[in-house]
From TrEMBL:
Its cofactor is FAD. PROSITE patterns: FAD_PCMH. This is D-lactate dehydrogenase (cytochrome). Coiled coil: none annotated. Its EC number is 1.1.2.4. Residues 34-219 form the FAD-binding PCMH-type domain. GO terms for molecular function: D-lactate dehydrogenase (cytochrome) activity; D-lactate dehydrogenase (NAD+) activity; FAD binding. One of its GO terms (biological process) is lactate catabolic process. Pfam families: FAD-oxidase_C, FAD_binding_4. InterPro entries: FAD-bd_oxidored_4_C, FAD-bd_PCMH, FAD-bd_PCMH-like_sf, FAD-bd_PCMH_sub2, FAD-linked_Oxase-like_C, Oxid_FAD_bind_N, Vanillyl_alc_oxidase_C-sub2. Keywords: FAD, Flavoprotein, Oxidoreductase, Transit peptide. Belongs to the FAD-binding oxidoreductase/transferase type 4 family. Gene3D superfamilies: 3.30.465.10, Vanillyl-alcohol Oxidase, Chain A, domain 4. It comes from Desulfatitalea alkaliphila.
Length: 452
């Protein structure tokens, strides 16, 4: 039996290791356009200590380690580009502490967003976390490792801004804690200790997040989704500026898509309103519609599309069926809100050129401090030409993000290289130093954020 396989079975037990081709096959792909990459082993640890032992062994053997959560980025970020061990973290899914009064939860990083939501519904229905629009199997750790954002992005920003503490296994195997938990206190704050934030946005290439303290927020009793519609895309930045001034919405998403045909070239703003009483709901609705949106209606340039929809969110995943093959991948970006019109127009052009119905979406982050703008491209998995069209469209869109002055979010390796080619040389060298210091053998998710 080979040495690495044997070491892995000793650490996590035989049932949780595999080197069987049919199981490696399922870990060689994600849902996007990336070509398959096979690992040599898959291991599913249960504790941070097991993760630490695996990483120490991998350092000795100079074998790559790729942390995997839900594998839902679509951008190939958890595919083993240099083979090695895929660490499937989904067994590390315990909810360790729910502190209702201080509004935080301590949770293992392999727990899914769906699990946390279900737990809160049951045990603390007056609290919520910022849930991404991703499938519920997406994990807390995977989302933080790429600076994800969820449905509380408008009031509270990125999910990675909602941390009270972190436990990380370093690439050399040490288990480190950051925040008040590092000095033995409760996991209630990350500040005011020195900033050691070297793990968010790195795609697991600087360490494996094993525990997280995540802030929770009030979950109001009533919620509704209203939709405001305009034809002229140049109005969207103004409308979003007005809506973020009143700050009455919980979530604000502007979107447009070619399908269904009646929606083509219309721009929808989904406005999520929540409240603890009918009066609070009515007050917020009045602030939004009577005070901020009525002038667009009076001028004949805007209309109410729908009111009080049951929290139906714009779902980019619906576009997966546009090509009848069940495939889609999107480029995400962090953009100034003012860029919406150009993002939409240029994105629709790219889609038309590649014969893909366009789907675009911009979620407001903070008080219009930025938006996560995405361009989604559907493809038919069974048709190589269709996949290639989507791939080309994705690459063109990465270039477009840079041209429009944005930053690619959760970039695939192509996008990472594009970003690093524009990066200030001192920053790039700093990234290289940090990676070399933390990961001297270059074993952690190699190929990601790799400075030449
Ligand atoms: C339909 C759809 C909608 C989406 N909507 C959103 C959205 O609204 N907001 C949003 O933020 N995202 C969204 N996403 C993108 C993505 O699915 C999520 O960000 C998801 O939370 C990523 O988590 P994951 O567990 O799937 O990560 P994975 O894909 O497993 O991993 C992501 C990266 O992090 C690394 N990693 C994984 N776990 C760890 C860990 N514990 N420690 C260190 N590194 C780790 C991996 O190696 C990889 O590089 C969407 C995706 C889809 C398919």
């Amino acid at each position: 039996m080979d040495k690495i396989y044997s070491a892995l079975t000793q650490i996590v037990g035989e049932d949780y290791v595999s080197n069987r081709p049919e199981e490696l096959f399922t870990y060689s792909k994600d849902l996007g356009t990336s070509p398959p990459q096979f690992p040599e082993y898959v291991a599913a640890p249960r504790t941070a200590e097991e993760v630490s032992r695996i990483v120490r062994m991998a350092n000795q053997e100079k074998v790559a380690v790729v942390p995997l959560g839900g594998g839902m980025t679509l951008a190939g970020l958890a595919l083993p580009l240099r083979g090695g061990i895929v660490l499937d973290l989904k067994r590390m899914d315990r909810i360790i502490e729910l502190n209702e009064k201080a509004r935080y939860v301590v949770i293992e990083a392999g727990a899914s967003h769906g699990k946390l939501t279900a737990h809160l519904h049951k045990h603390a229905p007056h609290l919520m976390h910022s849930e991404p629009g991703a499938p519920p199997a997406a994990t807390i750790g995977g989302n933080l490792a790429i600076h994800g954002q969820g449905d509380l992005a408008h009031p509270y920003g990125f999910n990675s801004d909602m941390l009270n503490g972190l436990e990380v296994v370093l690439p050399t195997g040490e288990i480190c804690r950051f925040g008040s938990c590092a000095i033995g206190c409760a996991w209630y704050t990350l500040h005011p200790l020195p900033d050691l934030g070297l793990f968010l946005g790195w795609n697991g290439s600087t360490g494996i997040i094993t525990k997280v303290s995540l802030r929770l927020f009030p979950c109001k009793k009533f919620r509704e989704m209203d939709i405001f519609v305009v034809e002229d895309e140049t109005l969207i930045p103004d409308v979003l500026f007005a809506l973020t001034h009143v700050g009455m919405a919980e979530d604000l998403v502007a979107w447009s898509s070619a399908i269904p045909p009646f929606a083509n070239e219309l721009h929808h703003i989904s406005i999520n309103i929540t409240g603890d009483s009918k009066e609070e709901m009515e007050f917020k609705r009045r602030q939004i519609f009577d005070i901020k949106l009525s002038k667009y209606i009076r001028d004949g340039v805007g209309a109410i599309g729908a009111v009080a929809q049951p929290s139906e969110r714009p779902q980019i995943s619906k576009s997966a069926d546009w090509k009848k093959g069940g495939g889609f991948e999107y480029v995400g970006s962090i953009m100034p809100v003012a860029a919406y019109p150009e993002c939409y127009r240029r994105g629709a052009e790219i889609s038309t050129r590649h014969d893909i119905p366009y789907t675009v979406l911009g979620r407001v982050i903070g008080a219009a401090h930025g938006m996560m703008f995405s361009w989604s491209y559907a493809f038919n998995r069974a048709d190589d030409r269709s996949v290639q069209h989507a791939r080309d469209a994705l690459h063109e869109t990465d270039d477009l993000v840079m041209e429009l002055g944005g930053t690619i979010w959760k970039p695939a390796v192509f996008g990472q290289q594009l970003l690093m080619s524009r990066m200030d040389p001192n920053t790039l060298q700093m990234m290289k130093k940090v990676k070399t210091m933390l990961d001297p053998n270059g074993i952690m998710n190699p190929g990601n954020w790799e400075v030449a």
